[in-house]
Protein 1
Amino acid sequence: MNQEFATNLPNEEPSMEEPIDQQPSAPPLVNMDVVAGYDKMNAALPPPPVWQVTTPSSHQEGDAQPVVPAVSEEQARQALAQYVSSNCCYGSRAVRDLVFTNISPSAAIHYQLETFTEQRKAGWSSEPYNGLPIDGPENGPAPLPWDIVVSPPEMFKDNKYYREVPHTASVKTCHSCLGSRTKRCGKCNGKGDVLCGSCTNGYRTVYRDGGSHREKCHQCNGSGRKRCLTCNGTGTVSCPTCAGKGALKCYILLVVTWTNNVSDHIIERTALPGHLIKGVSGKIVFHAENRQVAPLVAFFDDGVNSASQRLVQQHINQFSDQRILQQRHFVRMVPVSEIAYSYNNNNYKFWVYGDENRVYEEDYPLKCCCGLCAIL
Ligand SMILES: [Zn+2]
Ligand SMILES: [Zn+2]
Ligand SMILES: [Zn+2]
């Protein structure tokens, strides 16, 4: 379309800045002041490099493999009995009559690394100006984003915090109503009245005495329109952006996000699915906490060493635009017994794992085959 004819464009609002985390948005960026240290808005503000220090942690790594307790036949039978009774229609006869052929104890190893990070973002925000004193640049230069002292309420817990950056506030004419405090009413489009919902052009058809009659509408007195209740007939409403104040307090909003980033590595060498290990108890054989932990190098199982080195490096690379506040890692040994048994001349297997003696099996001989479980 030729630009010349594009005269009937809707009365568009000025474009708004991308809101940061659903906070109120501010007038267009072009109207805002330039504040030193805050040229990168609504993006992560990487921490000063001085924070990227690796502090070697002094720790004693598990240099000897701990002895893993094996379950006895009695414990294994008990665990299986409990498991069978918790499955609605598994038959318990096999538990009683099975013959153990082998119990092979081992230990799963669970390594976990947690990196607690802080990310800072800043963006222009605004709110209706209430007339109270503001903290503007006349009070001094704004502190740099990472110089503002903010502490997480709890370590290794996700959290968020918002705060106005000192000395960045200013009062600006509302960009939405241009200071007039009002906006055209959207309901009646500024007309002050709307179509009457009870009639057509002021008249309605009523059925009386066996016939239909055209009558003047009493709701609108025959005019076909009614007063707009949204604006009370005035055609304008209080400006929602500035709440009718005509002015906005604009300031830089600092958004601090704390995140606990957790990575797990599980070494489980039997056919027991490794992910099950995370849900049961075991024995912590190593743990350390520091600003930045040093990866394990001398743990007796080399799979743990390589997982630790890989994950520590991965976290350092991954969170380079954040400040690492604290790290911790641990190694847990979880007992796993692989149990072979025979029943009715067939061989089966199940696993008892965790301090809770939880059971995992796939081929218990007396499983429900009637399909009733799905119904129950
Ligand atoms: Zn009417
Ligand atoms: Zn209206
Ligand atoms: Zn306004």
Protein 2
Amino acid sequence: MSGLVTSQQRLRLADIFFSIQGEGALTGTPSVFIRTTGCNLRCWFCDTPYTSSEPEGTWHTLEDILKVSEEFETRHVVITGGEPLLPAAIVPLTHAFAERAWHITIETAGTIQRDVACDLMSISPKLSNSLPKEPNAWQTRHQHQRHQPEVIKQLISQYDYQLKFVIDTPDDIDEVLSYLQHFPMVPPGHVWLMPQGIDAETLAYKSTWLEPLAAKHGFHYCPRKHVELFGNQRAT
Ligand code: SF4
């Protein structure tokens, strides 16, 4: 696909900003973060409600997004959300970045498949511990949509990837292990366990049991460096 973008193609973004990647294999990498707004899930622990339950954002042309990104001293872009694979305009944007030789990470819950260009598909499949607390239509929708094994198989066959699971309690490990039985092609080295929490104290406490638990199964422990360093503050 051509990386040509037109002035008609637009995306609604909650944020576009420069920071350090705080999670996963590229932790510490200076990156431009493009945060789309809108999500098909409503995890109770969502740390960006302004992209899910209370979506905010402004429309930007793809040309402007590329122009703003190129002002920063990096060629790593992290496309995140919300769910960044929801809007169709994400496809030409990723191809435009690829044509300009950027390294592209996409952070997704792995429920939607699109023909994007991507160097690292960072997939955070949602376990049953993410279910919205209120028994309403979103809870039902979340339960039906959060697990899309065919999409996950497609993504991991097509791209380099990491699977990041949000862990709330030690018992969650059982669900991770049974989940992974459906994907025998995933080696433990592609799996990251990330503590649920939006403040440094909670994360520090959970690391005391989660780090050894991850090591026991050959998984990576995934600190949330951006929260440890900056708190759960919105970037812009
Ligand atoms: S998938 Fe991510 S952005 Fe969407 S509700 Fe869950 S935590 Fe929030």
